[in-house]
Specification:
The protein is of the alpha/beta class. The chain folds into two domains: 234 residues, Rossmann fold (3-Layer(aba) Sandwich), CATH 3.40.50.720; 48 residues, no CATH class. It is 42% helix and 15% strand. The chain has eleven helices and ten strands. It has an eight-stranded mixed beta sheet, with helices on both faces. It has a two-stranded antiparallel ribbon with strand order 9-10. A hairpin with a 2-residue loop joins strand 9 and strand 10.
Length: 308
């Protein structure tokens, strides 16, 4: 057992099984005290209770919480429970999720909303519940669980992909807003054999994709020296990073044949040579205006810099 998270308090949602269970156990193995959240966790014989027992048997500290991530009041109560037990919350791992896979043509709006409500709004609820506390203590580590389905698309997962890509946007902005209070916000894009992937992948493949192989990445994303605004991908013991990039592109101004130029020069527009990873959304405007010949010092309003 490492003690890199000694004294830290972590909340892991959806931690009764799969990735959440693996995350909770790995965080505890590194010294964190863990709130194991999952639906029904407060009931006798619950899966979350078994995870908490396993952590305690290993010499760690854990409590359970059965609140739904879709209920903001319940998430506020979960944070109060953690503070009452240990005095603070340092780490939040937004892991809870569901699947309602169907092609978009066959998908009901109820199934679309259900997935958005759990993945996106569930993460919003949990993060909002802990945000003021993290700001007050000038320390926080938040992990959103995104997915390659959101980053790159996946047939039959329009709802899931939309929710998972939305979490990247949430991470990007919260990382900027939390920076001055030492709150670091990152995304994890896992590939793992869980109840949500059962029946989708072959058994031989699933055997390599054990959830425990992903969880060391979570520890790296919540440690004292964690990065921020990182999309860490992980599966089968491999780790990569994904980036939202911007090509150098072209400048055509307001030429009358602008559309014709765009169509004729589309290879130049999509050429990834020298592509950029913008620090903020304003850097798109900075890049575009600079190509139009505007000096960067002129890109402000009322003396306030609004670019970059």
């Amino acid at each position: 057992m490492s003690e890199s998270l000694q004294g830290r308090v972590a909340i892991v949602t959806g931690a009764g099984g799969g990735l959440g269970r693996a995350h909770a156990i790995e965080l505890a193995r590194h010294g964190a005290r863990v709130v194991v959240n999952d639906l029904g966790a407060d009931e006798p014989g619950s899966r979350a209770g078994a995870v908490a027992d396993e952590i305690r048997r290993g010499g760690g500290e854990a409590i359970v919480n059965g609140g739904s991530v879709t209920d903001f009041d319940a998430m506020e109560e979960m944070v109060r429970q953690a503070v009452a037990q240990w005095g603070r919350v340092d780490i939040l791992v937004n892991n809870a999720g569901i699947l309602r896979d169907k092609s978009f043509a066959k998908m009901t709006l109820d199934d679309f909303r259900a997935v958005i409500d759990v993945h996106l709004m569930g993460s919003v609820n949990c993060t909002k519940a802990v945000w003021a506390l993290m700001r007050e203590q000038n320390y926080g580590r938040v992990v959103m669980t995104t997915s390659s389905s959101g980053l790159y698309g996946n047939f039959g997962q329009a709802n899931y992909g939309a929710a998972k890509m939305a979490l990247v946007g949430l991470m990007q902005t919260l990382a900027l807003e939390g920076e001055k209070n030492n709150i670091r916000v990152n995304c994890l894009a896992p590939t793992a054999a869980t109840a949500m992937t059962e029946g989708i992948l072959q058994q031989e493949v699933l055997a390599r994709l054990h959830p425990a192989a992903v969880s060391p990445g979570v520890v790296a994303l919540v440690s004292d020296d964690a990065p921020t605004r990182t999309i860490l991908m992980s599966g089968a013991g491999s780790f990569e990073c994904a980036h939202i990039t911007m090509t150098r592109g072209i400048h055509v101004g307001r030429a009358e044949d602008a559309t014709a130029q765009i169509r004729a020069r589309f290879d130049e527009i999509t050429d990834r040579t020298g592509e950029i990873v913008p620090r903020t959304g304003f850097e798109q405007a900075h890049h575009e205006l600079s190509k139009s010949g505007m000096d960067a010092d002129s890109m402000s309003a009322n003396g306030r810099t609004v670019i970059g």
